[in-house]
Amino acid sequence: MSALIEVRGLSAWHGARQVLHDVQLAIEEHEILGVIGPAGAGKTTFLRSLNRMNDLDAGCRTQGVIAYQGIDLADRAIDTAALRRRFGMVFAVPVPLPGSIRQNLALGPALGGSKSGLEGRIESTLRAACLWDEVKDRLDMSAPSLSGGQQQRLCLARALMLEPEVLLLDEPCSGLDPISTSRIEDALQELKSHLTVVLVTNNVMQASRASDRVAFFNGGRLVECGATKQIFINPREKETHDYISGRFG
Question: Does this model's pTM top 0.70?
Fold first, then answer.
């Protein structure tokens, strides 16, 4: 695999408080990179840096390089709306839009001016999100009436409607039952064949199941990154071992 995204010297501040310190990390193409660490480790700030969502927070500033296919995403000339279509994001709390399942999925392409093959795309993204069989006969029902796990998978399908190249997931299974969590993890394994996934999770067992590599953050610093098996069986740093074994966090 080749590095799709190269993060070099990334630091970030929320007001006067520094929350990321000189992060150096390569994200490889067609991998699921799990990002773990205790609360306040900088995981979400790191994730939101990748598609410039931190720009929406007036109190947040960053420095460093995030290079995507050789292009520095920190360049102020970058079209952030286009960037966020290529770097789709799913948040911890599902937020279905008012309206039907179909309307939720059709909105993104409509705003982008692309309506061709819409019904086929709706089916394919719902299949990719492991939701099609549950809703195929009721696409015109209210999206907010779905269960929490179904809403989260709908949000995943909605992100996929824009055909992103990178999928950013911020605790997508928090609050979900084990069956819904398993379905999302199954979906990710299928999706990585044609996109790259960065999965922030506080569930170390999920990271061990779903990730190809794992990056452990603590105190705003990247402590270590490696193959999932290596991180969980033979971590290089005692700090990593202590976190995984539940001694802190």
Answer: yes
